[in-house]
Amino acid sequence: MADDEVPLPPAEEPAPFTRGATVAIRSVRDHGPRHGVAVGFAVAGTVVRDRDDVVVVATAPGSDVRVRAGRGDGPNGRTVLPAAWDGTYEERVWQGATVVRVHRRGDRWSVWRWHDGERWGDVWYGNLESPWRRSALGFESQDWALDVVGRGDPTGDAWRVGLKDEDELAWMVQRGYVTEQQAAHVHDVGAHLLRRAREARWPFDADWDAWLPEPAWGAVALPPGWDRLPTGRREAEPRA
Predict the structure, then answer these.
(1) Over the stretch 37-61, which tens digit does the pLDDT of each residue have?
(2) Overall average pLDDT of the 93-116 stretch
(3) Which of 117, 138, 147, 204 could bond 164 through an S-S bridge, CB–CB 3.0 to 4.6 Å?
(4) What's the CATH number where 63 sits?
(5) Which H or E run includes 198?
(6) 230 occurs within a structural domain
(7) Quick check: is 215 in a domain?
């Protein structure tokens, strides 16, 4: 795949969501023979934009978050491996400022920024993941652990960008949760996004004010059925 090639989404996807719609962003993967393909975590949000191959979803403080219940492990003590998961979810809510996630359809990441109601923060977060797929409830992806984090103004001299959670991805490989081939692919995608960030390419040079949520939008709940997947649903695999 060329650096800037963006494939069109599958034709069988539901129609785009309208502005202001409540959706779930879900990470879906194979959790082994005990659980099969299942939702790993879910976050509720409000659609800011879903058109022209760009999706923007905002999550306000207090919005629903669900994560796998069980004993966390790994370098950060937060990864619940399939063997430690009982199939239930821990109920949480989004903390801090409103986060705005921007995803160009077909890209293998989304880029996040935080807005406190008055101004944007100086932290940029590139979440490496499989391309989003629109579903009846929102958008499905698969989180790949490794992230790209920037701080400052992408067009300024003080702009700094680096990788985050390399140790967590390496630990997942050691435990057999991720293959070496998958990890190598994730690192390749991370290097690609690092270059984009350092060169202040889209969406780092975009007008993010055009993607601000409405001031009246507040916390939202996950839609009913957020933890269920269609019969025969297959995992979104990390592919180039």
Answers:
(1) 999 999 999 999 999 899 999 999 9
(2) 97
(3) 147
(4) 2.40.380.10
(5) helix 180-198
(6) no
(7) no
